[in-house]
Input
Amino acid sequence: MDPIYLDHAATSPIDPQVLEIMIDTYKKVIGNPESIHSFGRQARKVVDDARHEIAKSIGARSREIVFTSGGTEGDNMAIIGAARARQALGKHIITTDVEHHAVFRACEYLASCGFSIDYLHVDASGRISLEELEEKLREDTILVSVMYGNNEVGTLQPIREIAHLLADHQALFHTDAVQAFGTVDMDVKDTPIDLLSMSGHKINGPKGIGFLYVRDSVSLAPITHGGDQERKRRAGTHNVPAIAGLGEAVALVRANLTDRINTCLKLRRIMLDDLTAEGANFQVNGNPEHFLPQVLNLYFPGVAIESLLTRLDLEGVAASSGSACTAGSVEPSHVLSAMFGSDAPETRSSLRLSFGVENTEDEIHRAAQILAKTVRALSTTGKAGEIK
Ligand SMILES: Cc1ncc(COP(=O)(O)O)c(C=O)c1O
Output
């Protein structure tokens, strides 16, 4: 039996159409877009066309799109770049307890440089409260960074409300849209977002490429120093084939957004129905109303997550948890800790399944059976006793 890949939030397989365009670009477009000769102009056109396609997809202007190496660089560029450019206006930044490390660690770095960081708490469903944001907002707040949708539990944040709340404040609004981009319709004209980061490899696009949307009126201090590429916002020779692939992947998302959403919702429903029919004991982590369709985080009471993941892997099902294995020990997920408390059993017994458009219904039926069987086995072999 072929293994079943249910870890699309980690990374997703490349769409064949995207790959074809990349290979074609590698073969036919050899110039550097900064060169003025015909080879350079040909490469420049590829970059311009992709930029145009990407800008259209979020209601932005082409010049507001900066190509990056992915989500991590986009987050760092937005947060560190905005903080450095705006420190004369204040040194206070607000973010949340459930951000990806790309945001967390950029904020920690800024704290070490003398910025003051406030973290918004989340409720048990993973949502922040606008009231807490209002309370924490200060005159010297220069940046608020709240992720669009969470990578571990899929909870969507009230992005539109946050953007409107900040509209009359000096603070810029950055959102990490790395997980949300392929299954949420977003428009920076409707929703006044100043900075939005995304990554190609989460949407069946190329790895090592992404973009940061930077509202026209916003200036960032560059975090890399070198050439004048990307209107002096991101130095370094363009990765033209990857940019061509990203443009195509974004165009495909745009053309098929409703289908992408409905496919993931259907796969999610099948998984939940099958687990219920199999009599599995589980709870869904995350917000029941505001969630990313492709992410399903499940708590299996009394089941040790490391054993579950290992056994699933042996049975051919690739899933994940929010835990990070460091030097042989498993660190509980900071997201689940923020939602339930650091000692809560959910932090040690929760599994993340993340679906993709190439998953078939048959795969999900099979995966649900394997999962239910494995959970049953682990609950009865005494492994459950390992978790308190
Ligand atoms: C929410 C979120 N932000 C940022 C990143 C980092 O993106 P990249 O892998 O493209 O650097 C990820 C990747 O898992 C993510 O899930």
